[in-house]
Amino acid sequence: MKFILRTFKWNIRSVKSRLILSYSIILLIPSLAIGWNSYTTAKNKVDDQMKQAAAAEVALLNQTIAQMIDGKMKDVDLLSQQVSLGSIGSIQGDEDPKVNEAMDTFKRLHPELESVIAGTDQGVTVQSPRSLTIPADYDPRNKPWYTQAMAHKDKVIVTNTYISNFSNMAIVSIAKAVNDGHGVIAANLNLKTLDDMVKGVKIGERGYIYLLDANRKYLIHPIAKIGDTSTAPTTDTMFKSESGEIEYVNTLDGKPKKMVYETNPLTGWKIAGTWYSDEVRQAAAPIFRRTTMVMALALFAGAIIVFVIIRSIAIPLRSLTDTSREISEGDLERRVEVKAGDELGQLGRSFNAMVDSLRSVMLELARRNREMTDSIAYANRIQQSVLPSPASLEQVFAEHWVVWKPRDVVGGDFYWTRQVGEVRWVAVGDCTGHGVPGALMTMLTVALLNRIADQGGNDVPSQVLQKLNGLLKHMLRQEQPEGLSDDGLDLGLCFAHGAEVTFAGAGMTIYVADAAGVRMVKGDKHKIGYRSTPPDCEYTNRLLRADPDAAYYMASDGVTDQNGGDKNVSLGRTRLMAWIDSFRILSMPEQRGEFERKLADYMGSEPQRDDIAMLAFRAAPKRAS
Amino acid sequence: MRRIEPISLQSSRTTPEVRFDPERATLKIRGESYPENAFEFYEPLLRWADEYLAQLSADSFVRTELELPYINTSSTKCFMLLLEKLEAAYQNGKTIEVYWYYDEDNESELECAEELKEDLTLPFHIIPKSEG
Question: Do β-strands B61-67 and B95-102 pair in parallel, antiparallel, or remain unpaired?
Fold first, then answer.
């Protein structure tokens, strides 16, 4: 998993993040829902089971009590018909053997009874077993079992619970007046059997059963004192209805409990089964643990599947992104590794096909470009051959420098020189267009200039310009309305006789630098060629008056139009003149270096705008040193 | 008469921004111009100008705004042609004015404007752009 986590940054907009998020939701929500559902179902079921168990215990006990009491009531009824108490005297200790025998038999048949007791209307008490001592002041006629039975002579009555004078245990008396009306016979039922029965019952781990009598006194309770009156809030509820179910908080330990209760119809007793609610949770805990474990296993298995799916999407996607980035950086040899046969695999294959065709297009372009560049590079050789060689230029002007920088390998700027007798000619021209069209124009112009020079009869430079204009327009068929060309050139031409320089310019300016500083002399506005210049256009000769060792500079407009500097504006004539002024006293080679450095500085990172040509010369022959 | 559609071109590396708006009667060209083939770029503009100027009513006022830090030779020739067309319309009695804005630091810009203005008689204002 390392290689996926390594570069994983959480970004909700990434496909990977969205996949992880949606898979997590798909995995987690049903697992949690199922887990929670089964846990609560289990809990409810356990709760229900507890309740049912408690209810069953309560009902069983209720039934047992009913049977027990009901049986005794029938037996007591029978006994009351068999026994006569009128035969017993009035003093305690008097007895009737028949009574004794009947009572003993009854006691023997009902061993669960604490005792069988009879009280006569004369205040005598007879008891079985006779071993129990009767207190001296004991008068049965005051006892509830006697008074209640006497009050309802034809009925068997069940007394409230009370603590036995003899055994100190909770008992009830089931009593009936005997047939002769001279007393009451009662069976004292000890609750010990019931107590044993109840104490053996557990509801859950710590739940129990308890009994209250009709007077809210505890009959059986694991903690409360027997005979005490219950003040618990649940007791109020219990005495409001026959049976029911209560949820409450135990007043003793503060824990939530539940209870079911019933009322015994014969005795009015309340039988309650209570249990702790947290036992339900404890009982459901193993189910909870199992569910959690299954969920964790499912999640883990799901996570592995999701991981594999995400990987199968994320890895090809990343490979595709990485590869396309590398390709965009220029490496057209890169290809996506395609393994999968799915849609991503298809994407990868068509991506590769796209790069293949892109690469072949690029190669084709590169080939064509190379051919064209080769062709232009060769054109540059030809153009250079037409420009004066350094040696020939040196021969004509011992002191000079030239910078010739076509923008696109070849260009429309050129310089040219010729010696005609004593007169040394030098020209700088700037033809329309750059590159190949410009270069074609320079070839034509140089050829025409050579022809004009060869034909002779040129006393002043303006004649050369005039002839060139006429010839060029003719050659380019500019006199004919259907001619295609409206091309031409700027040209500056100087004739040097010794130190004396005559200049004629067609759209070209010459800069003169001597001890007085730098000044410019503009040529005529009319250029050579172009439809707007008439075929017989005349140009002006300007004799440049300057010190004998003055330097002269001619530049194509690629120099003054070059943009750059802090404000990225054209260089302009003023700045160029300042440059010339700054280096005019230097030697020619130094001036060239200085010019190139300043120009490079000015351009900075700006591209060259136009072809650049600049030529400088001193007219005076080099002094022998 | 056919309605004349405005021309709106974004500037490119070598061509200026063009906004010819017949509704407001303003022709604006702004930016450097040095395409390899200037005629190809300007020819449709020149044809548009012919059509536009031809349908102008006598009382219309056309404002032309130019701001051209650098134009190459062939572009200059195209501007000459455009200005000649405007001049002709002006000679025919239409009110046409040219405003040429230039950067004072850019000497070539001013020279170019002055050169183009030279043969024209229509109002041609050469205005330095104020700094900031």
Answer: parallel
Residue of A nearest to B80 (CA): A532
Nearest CB to B72; choose among A560, A563, A610? A610
The reported pLDDT for the residue numbered A10 is: 67
pLDDT band at A2 (very low <50, low <70, confident <90, very high): very low
* pLDDT tens by residue, B75-91: 988 999 999 999 999 99
Beta strands in A317-463 (DSSP E): 400-405, 413-420, 423-431
Place of tokens 């994983």: A8
How far, rounded to the nearest angstrom, does the alpha carbon of residue B98 sit from its chain's CA centroid? Answer: 8
A208-241 pLDDT, tens digit per residue, is 898 888 888 888 888 888 778 888 888 888 898 8
Phi then psi dihedrals of residue A621, to 5 deg: -60, 145
Hey, where are the domains in chain B? 7-128
- Which candidate in B32, B68, B73 is best for mutational testing of the A interface (most A CBs within 10 A)? B73
The pLDDT, as a whole number, for residue B120 is: 92
Instruction: Please give the CATH superfamily to which domain A69-190 belongs.
Output: PAS domain (3.30.450.20)
What is B7-128's CATH number?
3.30.750
Query: Which chain A residues are closer than 8 Å to B118 by Cβ?
Result: 525
- A560 to B72: CB separation less than 8 angstroms, yes or no: no
Q: Is the ipTM of this complex over 0.85?
A: no
Q: Which residue has the higher pLDDT, A247 or A613?
A: A613
Task: Please tell us whether the domain made up of A194-280 is placed in CATH 3.30.450.20.
Answer: yes
Q: Architecture of domain A387-618 in CATH?
A: 4-Layer Sandwich (3.60)
Question: Considering only CB atoms, which chain A residues are within 8 Å of B108?
Answer: 560-561, 570-573
Q: Do domains A69-190 and A194-280 have the same CATH topology?
A: yes
**Predicted pLDDT at A123:** 85
Q: How far apart are the first and last CA of chain A?
A: 85
Burial state string for A284-298 with b = 16 or more CB within 10 A and e = fewer than 16: beebbeebeeebeee
